[in-house]
Amino acid sequence: MNYIPTPPTGGGCRTAPVLKERGQREVFCGLTGIIWLHRKMQDAFFLVVGSRTCAHLLQSAAGVMIFAEPRFATAILEEGDLAGLKDAQDELDMQVERLLARRPDIKQLFLVGSCPSEVIKLDLAKAAERQSQKHGPNVRVLNYSGSGIETTFTEGEDACLACMVPVLPQTDKRQLIVVGALPDVVEDQMLELLKGLGIDNVRCLPTRTAADELSVGPNTVFALTQPFLGETHAALLRRHARHLPAPFPYGEEGTTAWLAAIAKEFDVDAETFARVTDAPRARARAAVSQASEALQGKSVFFMPDSQMEIPLARFLARECGMLPIEVGMPYIHDAIHGPDLDLLPAGPQISEGQDVDKQLDRARAARPDLTVCGLGLANPLEAEGLTTKWAIELVFTPVHFYEQAGDLAGLFSRPVRRRNILGLEAAE
Amino acid sequence: MKLSVWTYEGPPHVGAMRVATGMKGLHYVLHAPQGDTYADLLFTMIERRNHRPPVSYTTFQARDLGADTSHLFKDACRDAIERFKPEAIIVGASCTAELIQDDPGGLAETMGFDIPVIALELPSYQRKENFGCDETFFQIVRHLAKPMERTKRITCNLIGPTALGFRHRDDIEELTGLLSEMGIDVNVCAPMNSTPTDIARMGAAHFNVLMYPETAEAAARWCETNLDQPYTKVVPIGVGATRDFIAEVAAITGRPALIDETRLRQPWYAASVDSTYLTGKRVFIFGDGTHVKAAARIARDEMGFEVVGIGCFNREMARDIRATAKEYGVEALITDDYLAVEEAIEKLQPEMILGTQMERHIGKRLGIPCAVISAPVHVQDFPARYSPQMGFEGANVMFDTWVHPLVMGLEEHLLHMFRDDFEFHDDAGPSHHGAQATARLEQVEAVQTVTSDNVIWLADAEKELRKIPFFVRGKARRNTESFAAEKGLNEISKDTLYEAKAHFAR
């Protein structure tokens, strides 16, 4: 089985010069990932060790306070913890004790570092180790940092998944690990496709519960479903697993290329591949072509945010007929983003990092038909007459694989169609 | 260390942002890591602002910490002034930057800008959002306002409204109209809609109207001492408070307290017969101190409710709320712990909650109706329509808002009348329209049950209890059980049920 999407006639973007900027960044920190991770891992609890700002961020990013008692909380550092009046480690043990007593359903506890806990060098690894000994094997305690000084938005998920890799048991069995937190319904679709291809030994990281077995070793290959998993990628390589580089499974083409990379590794024949993928491919193409009508020939500008920008630009350019002007990423990792950059038709400015005011100047000058940006920028840009798509929805909504390809195009086309429908000029 | 699930207030630098974002021509340079930029969305999404908040974040990263972060701050100041050309800047640190001790105020002052530079000291690990508002506005006023000649006409400053405030936008309009009827102009409204230049001419007003003590009390006190401006102590939320406010303003200015009340409908609506069912509804009130204090008075004196508990999340108002609680014969709950509030509500079992968005969720969980009276704000708290809390229109708005979550009087009566109809039983679902209606299932035989206190509900009592409409059944059960406990009974019969009903009859 060997499927390779047609490379762009004018060349791709892999070797295009990258505009690197350093200035004010308008992005969330990695703590935000907790909002979707806690829903994926149903027996996990995320305890942020941080400030009132961290708690406020989580609550604002979650949007509404729908859960009376969610599976995340913040241990807020107080004056006494900072001034050394109290031993922060003791304080933390006490909070964890109280939490676990009240929530016996918790099987995995993540101690999540924040900007203040990193700056005061509060050793959460030590705390996690100590608490694991105390509360194990019933509860596994791990730690990672979601701090804004180290992680950008989706990198929080990366840090979380990466911290689980070193403690995975060793195995020599031949297997595939699919990495990235996907909604259960999407994950099931993916497993179904792989099963159809005859690949049975598939595990997912993260597992849905702590009891689900997962191990890793030299005969493990892994595929990433999200483009922001650089640290997890490195952690798996350290466990001697091998990465299957591929474009990300957004859209019909991305999904096919992603599946093909796995099919090739597992020697799936072309006939089986066609039998499994032909029907969903046709469905996805039909859905995308319908949902992307409003996008054809329109320009798009990506502010760096979710780290999904390059693969999404590839999807929008190749499957929805859009013209990317600038594709900004918080950071670019060639081993992970290379296959998508190869396919993205040359032309757009690729940028890494951010100086938000300068970038906004460029967006205003370019007047794109659609700007993909964070929540802080969306309404102000709309008020200036630019149509926007807020990026956080891309990580909250099922967008991967064939059956969601049309929905993914729809996420981008809805704001464009909406602007056309609304008959009155918005004056505010 | 304190475990927190949901918070009523953000950190103090968010308070400073609320002041800066409400103003024009002011810029806030905030020494903070990248994640802190989330705060922009509070303003652009929740309040639907069409501009980014005027805040430059230094967004330092871990790799900067080993080197020099102060130059990042200086660059951000220089860039902000060059790009946005503000009339003044405020500078400060968020929680993380406070730890690295770069002293933004000191740094900015040495840079030789030709505009006022106002340094903020907001201790992130001790104080919260409201303090941040209050302190920031106070510092701005202290730096910029000067004593000056009074305006010829009687004028006042409206102080306290900020960005992201609970109905501040509409309260300004309502009070401006009310004062104008009294022949009083607004000299400056601040922080909302003011510029640093406006702040500088605050001294021209004859007095200050302190709209929200949470956000401007320090400034009001400073103006009293340094600009010789008295300030109003009554917050005009509710009919009685609005009349008191008018009297207070009349006393300060010597203007007659004559206000046209023809558009005030609240007293008649409360007196009309449909409102009879509101009598003695047991309400629990929680929110910021100012709104809670006002709501308690409205609840008791203007709606005819029974106040069964009050509390506030802002410690700064604790003394006031404790005094109010005493007046109402209830305990004050001063806490910012959402779980403690939930516990109090569960214990008190009120028939209605007047609270914040948090209590709205508690109410949803416990099946208790809730009307929102205070921040923290939610996108729903910024309605498109004019919807003040202050003044006479505010009183009208509040009547509607508070009654809305309750079943209306006539409706409640009809529910009683038709409670035995086949289409109106517990399992019928929310609507009886069309095919939704399902006939009442065969009545399951009632058997005796035992409560947690080992009181036995005899089968006939249990059966009788089921005839009571579901939305008051819980209350009937609790009342009967507490009556039985009081009388030392260990069995509840049908008679006990009706004795209890008579006992609790109001």
Characterization of this structure:
The complex is a heterodimer of chains A (428) and B (506). Chain A has 428 residues and is α/β, with parallel strands linked by helices. Among the domains of chain A are: 30-151, Rossmann fold, CATH 3.40.50.1980; 175-279, Nitrogenase molybdenum iron protein domain (Rossmann fold, 3-Layer(aba) Sandwich), CATH 3.40.50.1980. Chain A contains 17 helices and 14 strands. In chain A, the strands form 3 sheets. Chain A has a 6-stranded parallel beta sheet, sandwiched between helices. In chain A, α15 (375-383) links the parallel β13 (370-373) and β14 (388-390). In chain A, α7 packs parallel to α9 and α10 (251-265) runs antiparallel to α17 (402-421). Chain A is globular. The model of chain A has no long low-confidence stretch (mean pLDDT 93). Chain B is α/β, with parallel strands linked by helices and 506 residues long. Chain B has 4 domains: 12-140, 3-Layer(aba) Sandwich (Rossmann fold); 145-253, Rossmann fold, CATH 3.40.50.1980; 266-409, 3-Layer(aba) Sandwich (Rossmann fold), CATH 3.40.50.1980; 449-504, Proto-chlorophyllide reductase 57 kD subunit B (Helicase, Ruva Protein, domain 3, Orthogonal Bundle). Chain B is 45% helix and 13% strand. Chain B has helices at 12-22, 39-46, 62-65, 70-84, 95-100, 104-109, 129-144, 168-181, 196-200, 213-226, 239-253, 266-271, 289-302, 318-328, 338-348, 357-366, 391-403, 409-417, 459-467, 470-487, 494-504, and strands at 2-4, 26-31, 55-57, 88-93, 117-119, 155-159, 185-190, 207-210, 282-287, 306-312, 332-334, 352-355, 370-372, 449-450, 456-457, 491-492. In chain B, the strands form 4 sheets. Chain B has a 5-stranded parallel beta sheet with strand order 11-10-9-12-13, with helices on both faces. In chain B, β6 (155-159), α8 and β7 form a beta-alpha-beta unit. In chain B, α19 packs across α21. Chain B starts with a strand and ends with a helix. Chains A and B meet through α2, β3, α3, α4 and α5 of A and β1, α2, α3, α4 and α5 of B. β3 (72-76) of chain A pairs antiparallel with β1 of chain B.
